[in-house]
């Protein structure tokens, strides 16, 4: 199997419309007709709740991870002496999956923003960096309940980790990290606008914690 075929296969894996499948199987709806109209984890959290949002997010991450691992189908890249070529192919495979997620072959080329798939890709190539980014994502999500803000800051943190904290020596990977941060900012322009205006929807997760805080504030005001 040559590089073109594995890149095409990676695109097909990325094209699996997780959110669309979940929304149709469990709710009988097309997720793209609700919320932001986006077929990704953020909109799934918003429309279908934290349980199904989490399922979509995890599966979309696995798409990126599985796509990167397709290098195993080509023996040349399993040789440790071809490290640079391997990283180049892995980035290509991951990006093919991300493109598939954003423009899915199986869903009329109307997909999501690719952040979860990007995380899965990074998890396969740089697991420690990926875990650090997930930590940023979860911390922001716990603090704010904004999935979009969590994704944006995790994407920006990815570039910071690669360039400064882990000081990745591969130049192509450093360029890729900066490109990812810019891509995440670009694809979340509408979310950024809603965040600035205070109109962005929060995920259903931890809503009971916020209600308890609100009740405490009301009681304090009464006192």
TrEMBL record:
It is an enzyme of class 2 (transferase). GO terms for cellular component: plasma membrane. Pathway: Lipid metabolism; phospholipid metabolism. Keywords: Acyltransferase, Cell membrane, Lipid biosynthesis, Lipid metabolism, Membrane, Phospholipid biosynthesis, Phospholipid metabolism, Transferase, Transmembrane, Transmembrane helix. The keyword Kinase does not apply. One of its GO terms (biological process) is phospholipid biosynthetic process. It is found in: Cell membrane. It holds the Pfam family G3P_acyltransf. It catalyses: an acyl phosphate + sn-glycerol 3-phosphate = a 1-acyl-sn-glycero-3-phosphate + phosphate. It comes from the Bacteria. One of its GO terms (molecular function) is acyl-phosphate glycerol-3-phosphate acyltransferase activity. Its EC number is 2.3.1.275. The chain crosses the membrane at residues 52-74, 86-106, 118-139, 146-166, 172-188. Its main location: membrane. InterPro entries: G3P_acylTferase_PlsY (IPR003811). It is a multi-pass membrane protein. Belongs to the PlsY family. Catalyzes the transfer of an acyl group from acyl-phosphate (acyl-PO(4)) to glycerol-3-phosphate (G3P) to form lysophosphatidic acid (LPA). This enzyme utilizes acyl-phosphate as fatty acyl donor, but not acyl-CoA or acyl-ACP. Probably interacts with PlsX. This is Glycerol-3-phosphate acyltransferase. It comes from Dinghuibacter silviterrae.
